[in-house]
Design a protein that fits this description.
Strand content of chain A: under 5%
Shape of chain A: rod-shaped
Oligomer: heterodimer
CATH architecture of chain B: Alpha-Beta Complex
CATH class of chain B: Alpha Beta
Order of helices and strands of chain A: HHHH
Largest sheet of chain A: none
Structural class of chain A: mainly alpha
Number of helices of chain A: 4
Distance between the termini of chain B: 23 Å
Helix content of chain B: 40-55%
Radius of gyration of chain B: 17 Å
Distance between the termini of chain A: 97 Å
Radius of gyration of chain A: 28 Å
CATH topology of chain B: Spore Coat Polysaccharide Biosynthesis Protein SpsA, Chain A
Strand content of chain B: 5-15%
Number of helices of chain B: 8
Order of helices and strands of chain B: EHEHEHEHEHEHHEH
C-alpha cells in the first residue's frame, strides 16, 4: 500500500500544478491549446494520488508489487514526454511558418524597392513644371 | 532560346565571388535576369550583387541553402518566368555550361536538367574521400528509390521548366536540399535528365561542410529520404502531372 504521506504530497503537488496552469490561462500567459496537456497531467496525477486503492490495483495489473507509487512517477514521466513531443511538433510548425514569412518579407521588399526605383526614374525623367 | 529565363543564385557571405558570378551569367546571355538571394549575409554580398546588375532578394536572417533557393523559385513563379536556372554563388558553376542545361528543356525532353560532375567521361572532379563517399551513397540510394540512374544528387547546377519551378516554389527541402529534391521531383512524375558538366574549384572561401557536419547531414538526409517516400502529400497534382 502507498504510504499516506506520499499520497498527500502527490495530491498537493497535482493541485498546485492545476492551479498554476489555470492562473496562467487566466492571465493570458498560456494559450488554452497548450494548457490542455498540462491540465490533463494535473488531473490524472491528482486522481492517481487521491484514489489510493486504484493506484494499488493498477500497480497490480502492471506487475509492480513492491512499491505502488512507482506508478505515479511513470504516469508523470509519460505525460512530460507527451508534452515535449507536442512542443516539438509546435516548434516544427513555427519553424516552417517563420521561413515562409521571411521569404515573403524578402520578396515583398524586393518588389517595393523595384517600384521605388521605377517611380524615382519616372520622376527624374519628367521635369516638374 | 525562347521564353524568359531567370538565374537563381543563392549566396551567403560571398562578397568576393558574387560579382564575377553575376557578371559571368550576364556575359553568357544578357537576356537572363539574375536574382541573387542573399541569405542573411553579414558582409557586402547584397551590394556587390546589385552593383553587378542582379536583382537582389535579401532574406532578413539566415534560413539555410534550401529555403534560400526556394525563395528564388518563388520569385520565378511570381514573376512568371518560363525557365529558371540555378547556380551557386561561390563561382563553382561555369555559366558557359548553361547551354547544355537549357537545350534539353527547349526540346521538352525533361522538366529538370542537372549538371552532373560524374556523368560521362569528364572525370576531372575529384572531391575528398569523405565527400565522395557521401555523394556515392546518395547517388546509389536515390537511384534505387527512384528506379532511375542518378549519378550526382548533390549538384546545385540545374535548369527547370515551369512545372518544376511551381513544384519547388511550393515544396523544397531544407538542408542539403538537392538529394531530397531529386526524389521529390521523381515522385511528382517530373522528368529528370543529367548532363555532364565541368565544375570549377571554389574561387574564394571554403566549403561550408566539415566532416562531422557531413556525417550529421548524411544521417539526417537519409532519414528525410525515407520519410519523403512515405509522406502522404506526395500525390502529383494537376499542374505538374503529365
Amino acid at each position: 500500500m502507498t504510504p499516506v504521506r506520499i499520497s498527500i504530497a502527490a495530491a498537493v503537488g497535482s493541485i498546485l500544478l492545476i492551479l498554476i496552469v489555470l492562473e496562467l490561462i487566466r492571465g493570458r500567459r498560456l494559450k488554452e491549446r497548450y494548457a490542455l496537456l498540462w491540465l490533463a497531467t494535473g488531473v490524472v496525477l491528482l486522481v492517481l494520488s487521491a484514489w489510493r486503492g486504484g493506484l494499488n490495483t493498477i500497480a497490480g495489473w502492471l506487475g509492480v508489487s513492491g512499491y505502488p507509487p512507482a506508478i505515479l512517477f511513470a504516469a508523470a514521466i509519460m505525460f512530460v514526454i507527451a508534452v515535449l513531443l507536442h512542443y516539438s511538433t509546435v516548434l516544427s510548425k513555427l519553424t516552417d511558418d517563420n521561413i515562409l514569412l521571411a521569404q515573403e518579407v524578402a520578396l515583398l521588399r524586393a518588389r517595393v524597392e523595384a517600384l521605388e526605383r521605377e517611380s524615382a526614374a519616372k520622376f527624374t525623367e519628367q521635369p516638374t513644371g | 532560346m525562347s521564353g524568359r529565363i531567370v538565374a537563381v543564385v543563392p549566396a551567403f557571405d560571398e562578397e568576393e565571388a558574387i560579382g564575377p558570378v553575376v557578371a559571368g551569367i550576364r556575359d553568357f546571355d544578357p537576356g537572363i535576369d539574375v536574382v541573387v538571394v542573399d541569405d542573411g549575409s553579414g558582409d557586402g554580398t547584397a551590394e556587390a550583387a546589385a552593383a553587378a546588375g542582379a536583382i537582389v532578394v535579401s532574406l532578413p536572417f539566415n534560413l539555410g541553402i534550401g529555403a534560400a533557393v526556394q525563395t528564388g523559385f518563388r520569385y520565378a513563379l511570381e514573376q512568371d518566368y518560363d525557365l529558371a536556372v540555378r547556380l551557386d554563388g561561390d563561382g563553382q558553376h561555369d555559366p558557359a555550361e548553361l547551354t547544355k542545361l537549357l537545350a534539353p528543356l527547349a526540346r521538352d525532353e525533361a522538366d529538370v536538367v542537372t549538371g552532373s560532375r560524374f556523368h560521362g567521361e569528364n572525370g576531372s572532379y575529384r572531391p575528398p574521400l569523405g565527400r565522395r563517399l557521401g555523394i556515392t551513397w546518395f547517388a546509389k540510394l536515390v537511384s534505387l528509390l527512384s528506379r532511375q540512374r542518378v549519378t550526382d544528387t548533390t549538384s546545385g547546377f540545374q535548369a527547370l521548366n515551369r512545372p518544376a519551378i511551381a513544384l519547388f516554389a511550393r515544396d523544397y527541402p531544407s538542408d542539403y536540399p538537392e538529394v531530397e529534391a531529386t526524389v521529390l521531383l521523381l515522385k511528382h512524375r517530373l522528368r529528370l535528365l543529367e548532363v555532364p558538366v565541368e565544375m570549377r574549384e571554389r574561387e574564394t572561401g571554403s566549403s561550408s561542410i566539415t566532416f562531422l557536419r557531413s556525417l550529421y547531414y548524411a544521417v539526417k538526409v537519409t532519414l528525410a529520404l525515407f520519410v519523403g517516400i512515405a509522406r502522404r502529400s506526395a500525390v502529383p497534382n494537376e499542374e505538374t502531372h503529365r
